[in-house]
Amino acid sequence: xxVDKEHIIVKAGNGGDxxxxxxxxxxxxxxxxDGGDGGDGGSIYFIGDKRKSSLxxxxxxxxxxxxxxxxxxxxxxxxxxxxxxxIPVPLGxxxxxxxxxxxxxxxxxxxxxxxxxxxxxxxxxNVKFCTATRHAPHFxxxxxxxxxxxxxxxxxxxxxxxxxxxxxxxxxxxxxxISGAKPKIAAYHFxxxxxxxxxxxxxxxxxxxxxxxxxxxxxxxxxGLGHEFLRHIERTRMLIHIVDISGVEGRDxxxxxxxxxxxxxxxxxxxxxxxxIVVANKMDIDGAEENLKAFKKKFGKKYKIxxxxxxxxxxxxxxxxxxxxxxxxxxxxxxIEYEEFKYERKDESQFDIVRDDDGxxxxxxxxxxxxxxxxxxxxxxxxxxxxxTLRNRGVFKALKKLxxxxxxxxxxxxxxxxxxx
Length: 421
Ligand SMILES: Nc1nc2c(ncn2[C@@H]2O[C@H](COP(=O)(O)OP(=O)(O)OP(=O)(O)O)[C@@H](O)[C@H]2O)c(=O)[nH]1
Ligand SMILES: [Mg+2]
Fold this sequence. Notes:
The protein is an alpha/beta fold. It has helices spanning about 55-60, 170-180, 255-265, 270, 290-300, 315-330, 365-375, 380-390, 395-400, and strands at about 5-10, 45-50, 65, 85-90, 95, 105, 115, 150-155, 160-165, 195-200, 205-210, 240-245, 275-280, 305, 350-355, 360-365, 410, 415-420. Bound molecules: guanosine-5'-triphosphate and magnesium ion (MG). Magnesium ion binds near residues 171, 191 and 192.
């Protein structure tokens, strides 16, 4: 099975909680705080792996969670950091955020490693909350909790040349003659169901050719195998457009050529605008010469046309010379140009205030997460810290603006209190 598009869920590790602990050994009852920090959660990376050729791994496994950071311990012990998760993908994998469709990264080179999700930061232990006036903080910070993210992985094969044509025109036959690839070849349509790659060596150069399933009229609307797999020739540098010039199957090569170019336009104008040479295949069959004349008359000015018989390799050298020369004039295959989409770490200063049914003022947003990470309900120091944060971050100001009065209820996470100016 060939898999070239998959949906997966990834999640970086949560940060470990900081510890609340006090020095405690024989003879010392009231030692100072010694709670260590929690470890950071593991991050999610993707790495290009040239040995992989499809996204099949992701068909079988869809959830990729990096390890959480461990809790901090007494004696200022740091919690262990979570292991990063490095996910190998084939070269040419474009990774998008499922919700927005934005491109997160395009893994193009072997060994190219991209950070996609940063692990949650570990919480600070109580020892870090000691101040001149607060000698024994009974609270520690919780680790940052991370959110799972849905990604779409798409394989856009990286090849120099794309082979394009109706079913059974001889695309796979041609690939088998010019490279070491051994694609399936047969007289029925849609023999090729997934792309085949072949490396062609010609003179001092070598280039990669991608043979894809046959395309038919209406592919854009799903006819035949549809046009989804055109993604595999999307970033080639040029196309070899093959027609069955003999018309042995009862189709007209001129008509075929026009129709397929229309399908390309419907798929992506950039693909339609790629440099094309035409290969007129099956010259060994009766009627091919006549058809070739007519074809040349119609398209000879715009395209270079190479009559061949793929079956016995006739005419192939001239065609390869042309591909070789053309590739020299074209820029190398490039990664996609895109604006990299980065998953923001939560901006912990943001908040919003909503009124609930009882008229209470409910503070929501990342700031609340921050406060909830830091506040232990029954601890006076901790509540003082929350008061200070609410003042500094402008929450009280915002409440006043909304017309809050003494005695009104304010809800922040699990904390609920009466407002007093
Ligand atoms: N007579 C003749 N037959 C050919 C030639 N090239 C290919 N064929 C035959 O055409 C049929 C289809 O060939 P394929 O190479 O499988 O065609 P394809 O374009 O890859 O077809 P799909 O994968 O189905 O899209 C096979 O029976 C081949 O033997 C040729 O030059 N002359
Ligand atoms: Mg084929």
